[in-house]
Write a structure and sequence with these properties.
The protein contains five helices and five strands. With about 180 residues, it is an alpha+beta fold. The chain has two domains: about 70 residues, Roll (Ubiquitin-like (UB roll)), CATH 3.10.20; about 90 residues, DNA polymerase, domain 1. Strands 2-1-5-3-4 form a five-stranded mixed beta sheet, with helices on both faces. A hairpin with a 2-residue loop joins strand 3 and strand 4. The longest helix has 18 residues. Pfam families: Fer2, Fer2_2. GO terms for molecular function: 2 iron, 2 sulfur cluster binding; metal ion binding; oxidoreductase activity, acting on the aldehyde or oxo group of donors. InterPro entries: 2Fe-2S-bd, 2Fe-2S-bd_dom_sf, 2Fe-2S_ferredoxin-like_sf, 2Fe-2S_ferredoxin-type, 2Fe2S_fd_BS, Aldehyde_Oxdr_Iron-Sulfur, Beta-grasp_dom_sf.
Length: about 180
């Protein structure tokens, strides 16, 4: 007899496949932290309001505390531990370090994953709530106002926002130069 409250799922976390038997109500955050032992995503509020649990799900940022693990079945999950490739930091990680984009560090994993998502969304031409021209052929400029709006779902209790904004803008410039 099968248990209708549990499901077998498969998650590819930072390149490694994990097969899990989870309660259907289990959050992706809890599955990542407790079942796959990825401590990067933090449980800040557990209500999707602080962004400390932000991860990339198939390349798009999500708050993992509000995402059911069963809904992520078959997906690629990138946590902060999976952002660097062979110890080569991404431009956004380097910028956070160089420009003091963190203080206590609790929110930093979510901030970094969100910043990677923000940069990808901007490259793809996605507008934000403050983008003035949302026509398909318009390419908005990534400025401090855009970064603040796009990163607004990630709270920092220490108030490192000015440095976070500078780091995201710096990373965007460095990525643009590489292309």
């Amino acid at each position: 007899m099968t248990d209708a409250t549990r499901s077998e799922i498969s998650l590819k976390v930072n390149g490694k496949t994990h097969r899990l038997n989870v309660d259907n109500r289990r959050s992706l955050l809890d599955a990542l932290r407790e079942d796959t032992k990825h401590a990067g995503p933090k449980k800040g509020c557990d209500f999707g309001q602080c962004g400390a649990c932000t991860v990339l799900l198939d390349g798009k940022r999500v708050v993992s505390c509000l995402t059911l693990a069963v809904a992520a079945d078959g997906s690629q999950v990138t946590t902060v531990e999976g952002l660097a490739a062979d110890d080569d930091l991404r431009p956004v990680q380097e910028a956070f370090l160089r420009l003091d984009g963190f203080q206590c560090g609790f929110c930093t994993p979510g901030q970094l994953c969100s910043a990677v998502g923000v940069l990808a969304e901007h490259r793809a031409g996605w507008p934000s709530a403050v983008t003035s021209d949302v026509s398909p052929d318009h390419r908005c400029r990534l400025d401090a106002e855009e970064v603040r709006e796009r990163m607004s779902g990630n709270l920092c209790r220490c108030g490192a926002y000015p440095s976070i904004v500078r780091a995201v803008l710096d990373a965007a410039e460095r990525e643009e130069v590489k292309r």
